[in-house]
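Backbones bend. We report:
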Amino acid sequence: MHKILVSSCLLGQPVRYDGQSKGLTNDILTQWLKEKRVVAFCPEVSGGLPTPRPPAEISVEKVMTANGEDVTSEFQLGAQKALALCKAQQIKFALLKESSPSCGRNTIYDGSHKGVKVAGMGLTAEKLVKAGIQVFSEDQLPELVSALAIAEKN
């Protein structure tokens, strides 16, 4: 049975920059939790950032807060820790929070801090994908379910 790395905020943990969560209520996620397949992880907190914290966006290869602080190193450390955790626990699948500068799978904010989304990946999502881990956003839960089904048949 494959384990799944899941953004802590999707599990209802108040780790987002604003001290909130984005708890995902879903029968399949509930089932995975019961089966102890879920490994909760927040790369931003793991990288040393507090909760709450200023919002951050990716801007020209750096992660910058709305007040101009460069938090790239914390985001990079969180991404490295996520990959290390996946390797240590042989995790091949991740369910990450879309649009986050860490976890965004398909979209991120454009760095202007004006709420504009663009195609792109957060630092953790990108690092995991490059390492061969299949990363999905909460909007891609059916695709994750299918990928897991295929992997568990093999």
